[in-house]
């Protein structure tokens, strides 16, 4: 479900024609639909109403302050993975009591700052990290809440770069070690271990691996109780998949039907950390066709956005639909590799794609680029990162200016 629709052969974001946006702001341009991402947040909240979860939007999916602020205003908490994201979360007005912090490599400075701010949970990924948090909290004379991130060893069907809950991944702690950590943790005076956290991967379209992981950790929590360890919170992570091409992901309601019964039975307080599910389909990347280059072997459509603007195709072999902003009258198609201007053969947005016949100077929309789009953008090849606009009904708001040439060298000393 998203609010990018064609009217009279022209692509609109909500009530705004995208062609008007590219004329005003140029390309490449990220265009976000407010009602799409708020809609996804509210759908998830409604589906899980019976357990009234704390929904912590995963900042790394898209960390623009305007987006964070809009979600926080609707009651979202935030899931962070660095000190930089903590800074953003606070700037967006998020109550620290709604911030959860995961990462295998939290530094002392990051830990201290998060303790000072009073975040809800550290999601702890190793014993040395737990001891370090305890030491730093002790120095600050505080007791901080922690959840232990479990690696439940389940294998969701998704790209191997985005599975995080198998024992070969660096994330979380296996059950046997976690048991020892939890028992040992009781002796640490400046941490209060009151939660269990899992996050098994991303773009998972089926509820089965979630249910499997949740059942495993709930059984684990019951065993802990017998040993006198009381767990109050279960954080089930993020990872819900969306439609990029022809996936049939579970809806929020289907997901809830699958996992709600066990969650309710457990009596635990529930936290969720969706990123992609909320913001993924809420944006397009508008690009301009620069050249059509014909070679003996194939044809390239060279556009003005590259892997520095959107790295998902290069990094994950991800599929993004690509459509012209104005549907041509002819039904004729051409088979092309859609590529960017960057000096890398991995710099492509689509391979061997049949697109409507397109001319130089035409504009295209790369669909579903809200998650891990701008947040993974870089300045490679000294390219300025794109502008971002947020649409709500017929309102247009520039939420990030296009970078300038001066921005590129701002911190350099010569
Ligand atoms: C990335 C991440 C998420 C969000 O993942 P999505 O697939 O975008 O929902 C949630 N929790 C943790 C710990 C993460 O690292």
How would you sum up this structure in a few lines?
This protein is of the alpha/beta class.
Using only C-alpha atoms, the radius of gyration works out to 23 Å
- Give the overall average pLDDT: 96
Instruction: Please state the second-level CATH architecture of the largest domain.
Output: Alpha-Beta Barrel
**Can you give the helix content as a percent range?**
25-40%
The secondary structure category is alpha/beta
For the largest beta-sheet, the strand count, sense and barrel status come to: 9 strands, mixed
* DSSP, total strands: 20
Question: Which molecules are bound in this entry?
Answer: pyridoxal-5'-phosphate
Structural features, described:
- The protein is α/β, with parallel strands linked by helices and 414 residues long.
- The chain folds into 2 domains: 4-32 and 280-408, Lyase, Ornithine Decarboxylase, Chain A, domain 1 (Beta Barrel); 34-276, TIM Barrel, CATH 3.20.20.
- It is 29% helix and 25% strand.
- The chain is built from 12 helices and 20 strands.
- The protein has helices at residues 18-25, 34-47, 65-73, 83-91, 108-117, 127-139, 175-185, 208-226, 252-266, 276-279, 312-316, 405-409, and strands spanning 4-7, 10-13, 16-17, 29-33, 54-58, 77-80, 99-102, 121-124, 144-149, 191-197, 233-235, 269-272, 283-294, 299-303, 322-324, 333-339, 348-356, 363-366, 387-392, 395-400.
- Strands 4, 13, 14, 15, 16, 17, 18, 19 and 20 form a 9-stranded mixed β-sheet that branches. Strands 5-6-7-8-9-10-11-12 form an 8-stranded parallel beta barrel, surrounded by 5 helices.
- A hairpin with a 2-residue loop joins strand 19 and strand 20.
- Helix 2 packs parallel to helix 9 (252-266).
- The longest helix is centred in the middle third of the chain and has 19 residues, at 208-226.
- The protein is globular.
- The protein starts with a strand and ends in a 5-residue tail after the last helix.
- 45% of the residues are buried.
- The model has no long low-confidence stretch (mean pLDDT 96).
- Pyridoxal-5'-phosphate binds at residues 58, 60-61, 79, 81, 102, 199, 202, 237-240, 273-277, 371.
